[in-house]
Design a protein that fits this description.
- The complex is a heterodimer of chains A (507) and B (620).
- Helices cover 42% and strands 14% of the residues of chain A.
- With 507 residues, chain A is α/β, with parallel strands linked by helices.
- Chain A is globular and about 80 Å long.
- Among the domains of chain B are: 245 residues, FAD/NAD(P)-binding domain; 98 residues, Orthogonal Bundle (Guanine Nucleotide Dissociation Inhibitor, domain 1).
- Helices cover 27% and strands 15% of the residues of chain B.
- In chain B, a hairpin with a 2-residue loop joins strand 9 and strand 10.
- The chains are: A alpha/beta (507), B alpha+beta (620).
């Protein structure tokens, strides 16, 4: 090795380097330096070193079949040789024979040695028949199936295969993951959900079904056929994809009616008309129940989903604590429509929380999503109000579907912070977050219409934690009873300084 | 040669069955001077495997039960005054009711000789054997075998010494296989088995070849047929012993490939491993879960006593009925996995049996069983070889002239050996080793264990299958087993009458032999009267599927004989052995006066397997 380093220092990349690196790598194929030197030397040497090099790297993979360096080198060598997928396939098959879960071999097979899709499917089926606890094989299979909805016949075959696996061993997660991948075939493209024009702060707000980045040209907005110059900025104030985007309205828009037209990526246009005497106007798409919990599954046939849900129920009768099954059933119920299956969905998630303590947070977030979805779909849920008191929420998803809410009741949950997405709720007037676990409001974007904020019983200790509230122009009432801050002697003075126009209740 | 043999031994082992051979190996390994004798001219006793002609001679011998003439009383002169003689029964009465059937035109085989066989061999022992049944002997049956530990025991007669050479013999047989298939002469081709002309439509493309009796006879030396039908549990005592003692290097094994069940008149494959359950097409999803759930429970049933406590006093079959298992799953578990009786196996016994089966899964393959290539008879020979490597001396065809009488045991095993032309359950692969348990028609009767071996196990010729049927006897072997044979197979003699299609699916029986073998495994040593304290008794094969009984017995006897010695420790690596002068000298004076009969005294030679000059052991 020392000789090698010396030679590298002197820039001597000759046959001896190849020989020396060969000796080192044959014993330990994970010395990246040697692979690099070897490649440089080989390139300089020229000649037909491809067959010898393939044999050499094959030997190294015999020493460590999962050596990243050796696999990388093999790919590099192959770039210097005419493609021979059959030979590569045989090579991968040999390594997979020894270890069917060697993800390098699977990756290599995918990249260099793909046979026809059907042949590859047969190959994975053969390895799965040996042992189906094989994420790599399932994954390879998933990659072979074209994007988008599967032909019904194929879907049926795949579902049968994977159901065989989950019924044989429900503890094995690889099959459950594949089952969910089979269903979640396509993510619906982002689209506009709602628009809100507000003359008071001169802002046009757009809510999207998924976080997007609005670049010039992707979102066309015009006012009475005159394009809005923008710029668009995310409502949560962070430079990353967001569901909420804001655009300033031209100043001096004092003469309604005015008609705003907005279209996302040349999709259908949506209109908002500001009428005389009104300071705001909005448009909102009706809520799509199937999209709330598992939007990716939307393309699957509901009949197939109900059949699968039924199979899951059967399995749960035998294995009430199978976490893969509980999760899959919960998602299926969500995809089939949370309202019709509300109670079963809640029961399912409660069981999952007990059965899978290691993923408690994940499950709690999923349960939060389900609760918000159920509230959004509640019969008679007014446009402006979401009542989510005491639902054990740990997060606040689906805000983009409630962009026009004026009142948000979140008392008695387990929220640790207020999500920046709240900044997209341009009409929010009353926000009750009493008895949660909020420590600080740092990062909360300005809420233009917020009048009342209740933070009673949250672990807020410092007045500075409330600083973002100073940017809320209409805030008039703030409740802080039962917070550590309220007990502090200097609290009143500090708050008065921070929020001079707000009536703060400390007890 | 006899003059050169040592006259003194520490241990004399009589009989070369499995427990005797293990004891002989263990004794030799621990440094005892061992003489291992067998009155027969082959190894293994009732554990033996035969070439086809060997089996025919064995059948003939056991049907005739001819008195072994031994008028030569010379040996009596050698008895010293202070010595006493216990006579041994010379008649082997452990085999009864031997009935052999050939379903082909065996006259056609009259002129066929077994390839490579010695010309003098009585090849056609089976001719005219049909229906000949031996009267059951009511006399006291003889002792199967005995192990004697003597201070100084004289080896009276020794004309030739055979070493454990069969491994080599088998090697040569394998080589023979490639020498081209035997050509069927025109005179023979008209003599098809199964009377093909009776139903030409039967002979479809899927039935490529007719196997003729003459072919079986001619190729008889290429395969070995077992007298006992056993499999090795892959976590059983025998496998452990083979590995520990390194005897395993003398044998090769093949995994049993599938477990079958016979239900509602049909043969089905039993899914027993996780992969089987996953791949099974016959189980519904819910059944898959039920089965897996139950099997998983069985693996650690002791951790969940509440699950079976209430059923401790009921039978396993009753317990299964309470476990939400469908009838087919209950059948699979009871008969094919636990392989226990429906009527008198308790819940805990059933759970134990199931667990044993499951624990053996996956060690060597997808089923819990291994089968030794060239037949079960290899195993005793492997241990004999081990014994010989450590200085044991072998004398076949030498009966010991002493008599020890055992009590009437009454227990017998019914056996049938069939040669068939197809598998009972055809799949893509012809090379299957299958085990099938056929439950009794009447409750309380024993189930019949069927083991079907393919030609790659070296137990039958290409395109045939060797089928063993075994059950504890209630009547003669034929009476016990023929109903099962008729259920599973198509007997050729009826070929002309039967025209229904379903009959055509069944494999045809080409040849069959039935016999009863005595099961002395349950006999207590105390039931032998006036047995000297240094004589230990081994039993013959039992009816169980595994070999645990024999291994346990061998170990127990060895521990009684040599309480301080380790049982079959791994032999030293030949490269690690350092000989010092004394050892070499003593060894030479001990038993190697005659170089050509020297039975591989140093372990060094054992590594060069088959290269030593050993006498070939063959039927004479």
């Amino acid at each position: 090795m020392a000789t090698l380093i010396d030679k590298r220092g002197r820039g001597e990349l000759d046959a001896e380097v190849v020989e020396l690196t060969g000796a080192v790598l044959a014993a330990n194929p994970d010395v990246g330096t040697c692979w690099n030197l070897r490649r440089r030397a080989l390139e300089l040497l020229g000649g037909d070193w491809v067959p010898g090099e393939l044999a050499f790297v094959g030997g190294c993979l015999g020493v460590n079949p999962k050596s990243y360096g050796a696999w990388h080198h093999r790919r590099w060598v192959l770039r210097h040789a005419p493609p021979d997928p059959a030979a590569q396939r045989a090579f991968c098959a040999r390594l997979l024979e020894a270890d069917p879960r060697n993800f390098h071999a699977w990756e290599h097979r995918r990249a260099e040695a793909g046979a026809g899709a059907e042949a590859e499917l047969a190959f994975t089926a053969q390895l799965l028949a040996r042992d189906f606890s094989n994420f790599s094989a399932w994954h390879h299979r998933g990659r072979l199936l074209a994007e988008g909805p599967l032909p019904p016949e194929r879907l049926r075959e795949e579902l049968e295969l994977v159901q065989n696996a989950v019924f044989t061993d429900p503890q094995d997660q690889s099959a459950w993951v594949y089952l969910r991948c089979l269903l979640a075939r396509a993510t619906p493209p982002p689209r506009l959900l709602s628009l809100h024009a507000d003359l008071e702060d001169g802002t046009l707000a757009a809510a999207f079904s998924r976080p997007v980045v609005v670049s010039p040209g992707s979102l066309e907005a015009s006012l009475d056929d005159c394009p809005l110059p923008g710029p668009w900025r995310p409502a949560d104030g962070r430079p990353r994809p967001s569901c909420f985007w804001l655009c300033p309205l031209p100043p001096g828009l004092a003469t309604p009616p005015a008609r705003l037209r907005v279209a996302w990526q040349r999709g259908p246009a949506h209109f908002v008309t500001l009428r005389p005497g009104e300071t705001e106007a909005w448009w909102q798409e009706p809520i799509e129940a199937r999209e709330l919990i598992w939007p990716e599954v939307g393309v699957s046939d509901p009949a197939v989903l109900s059949e699968l849900a039924q199979a899951c129920r059967e399995l749960l009768e035998l294995e009430p604590r199978s976490r893969g099954c509980l999760l899959t059933l919960a998602l299926l119920l969500g995809a089939l429509g949370p309202r019709a299956h509300g109670e079963e969905l809640r029961r399912c998630l409660r069981c999952l929380q007990e059965a899978d303590p290691l993923r408690r947070g994940f499950v709690a977030d999923l349960a939060s999503r389900a609760e918000v979805a159920l509230e959004l779909l509640r019969e008679g849920a007014g446009l402006g109000e979401l009542r989510l008191q005491g639902k054990a929420l740990t997060s606040l998803p689906l805000l983009e579907r409630a962009a026009l809410a004026a009142r948000l009741e979140l008392a008695g949950n387990e929220l640790g912070a207020l999500p920046p997405g709240l900044g997209g709720l341009r009409r929010l007037q009353v926000l009750d977050v009493s008895r949660n676990r909020v420590r600080s409001l740092r990062g909360l974007p300005p809420l233009p219409r917020l009048e009342e904020l209740r933070l009673d019983g949250n672990p807020i200790s410092h007045a500075s934690d409330l600083a973002p509230l100073a940017a809320c122009p209409r805030l008039a009432r703030l409740r802080l009873a039962g917070t550590p801050l309220a007990a502090a002697p200097e609290a009143a003075a500090q708050l008065d300084k921070l929020l001079p126009h707000v009536a703060v209740t400390l007890a | 040669m006899a003059d050169n043999l040592p006259a003194e031994f520490d241990v004399v082992v009589v009989g070369t069955g499995l427990p005797e051979s293990i004891i002989a190996a263990a004794c030799a390994r621990s440094g005892q001077r061992v003489l291992h004798v067998d009155s027969r001219n082959y190894y293994g006793g009732n554990w033996a495997s035969f070439s086809f002609s060997g089996l025919l001679s064995w059948i003939k011998e056991n049907q005739e039960k001819s008195e072994i003439s031994d008028e030569c009383e010379d040996w009596r002169k050698l008895i010293l005054e202070n010595e006493e003689v216990i006579s041994l029964n010379k008649k082997d009465k452990t085999i009864e009711h031997v009935e052999a059937f050939c379903f082909g035109d065996q006259d056609s085989a009259k002129d066929v000789e077994e390839a490579g066989a010695l010309p003098k061999l009585p090849v056609f022992g089976a001719s005219g054997a049909e229906g000949v049944a031996q009267d059951p002997n009511k006399e006291c049956p003889p002792l199967d075998s005995a192990v004697a530990r003597a201070e100084s025991c004289e080896a009276e007669k020794a004309a030739s010494v055979d070493t454990a050479s069969t491994v080599e013999e088998n090697d040569t047989e394998v080589n023979c296989e490639n020498e081209g298939s035997p050509s069927v002469s025109s005179s023979e081709s008209a003599l098809d088995l199964g009377k093909a002309e009776a139903a030409p439509s039967e002979v479809s493309a899927q039935e490529p070849k007719k196997i003729m009796y003459s072919q079986i006879v001619r190729e008889g030396r290429r395969f070995n047929i077992d007298l006992v039908s056993k499999l090795l549990y892959s976590r059983g005592l025998l496998i452990d012993l083979l590995i520990k003692s390194n005897v395993s290097r003398y044998a090769e094994f093949k995994n049993a490939t599938r477990i079958l069940a016979f239900r509602e008149g049909k043969v089905e494959q039993v899914p027993c491993s996780r992969a089987d359950v996953f791949n099974s097409r016959q189980l519904t999803m819910v059944e898959k879960r039920m089965l897996m759930k139950f099997l998983t429970f069985c693996l650690d049933y002791e951790q969940h006593p509440d699950e079976f406590q209430d059923y401790k006093n009921s039978t396993f079959a009753q317990f299964l009925r309470t476990r939400k298992l469908t009838p087919s799953l209950q059948h699979f578990i009871l008969h094919s996995i636990a392989m226990v009786s429906e009527t008198d196996c308790s819940t805990v016994e059933g759970l134990q049996a199931t667990r044993k089966f499951l624990q053996c899964l996956g060690r060597y393959g997808n089923t819990p069983f291994l089968f030794p290539l060239y037949g079960q008879g290899e195993i005793p020979q492997c241990f004999c070889r081990m014994c010989a490597v450590f200085g044991g001396i072998y004398c076949l065809r030498h009966s010991v002239q002493c008599l020890v009488v055992d009590k009437e045991s009454g227990r017998q095993i019914s056996r049938a050996v069939l040669i068939t032309d197809q598998s009972v359950l055809k799949t893509d692969s012809e090379q299957q080793v299958s085990i099938l348990t056929v439950p009794p028609v009447d409750l309380g009767q024993p189930a019949v264990c069927v083991i079907e071996l393919c030609s790659s196990t070296m137990t039958c010729m290409k395109d045939t299958y060797l089928v063993h049927l075994t059950c504890p006897s209630t009547k003669t072997a034929r009476e016990d087993l023929e109903p099962v044979v008729q259920k599973l197979f198509h007997l050729n003699t009826e070929a002309e009458k039967e025209t229904e299609n379903e009959e055509l699916d069944k494999p045809r029986v080409l040849w069959a032999v039935y016999f009863n073998m005595r099961d002395s495994s349950g006999i207590d040593r105390n039931s032998y009267s006036s047995l000297p304290s240094n004589v230990y008794v081994c039993s013959g094969p039992d009816s169980a599927l595994g070999n645990d009984c024999a291994v346990k017995q061998a170990e127990t006897i060895f521990q009684e004989m040599f309480p301080t010695e380790e049982f079959c420790p791994p032999p030293p690596n030949p490269e690690d052995i350092i000989y010092d002068e004394d050892e070499l000298a003593s060894e030479e004076s001990g038993l190697s006066n005659s170089p050509e009969t020297k039975p591989e005294p140093s372990p060094e030679e054992s590594s060069s397997r088959g290269s030593t000059a050993v006498n070939e052991h063959s039927e004479e």
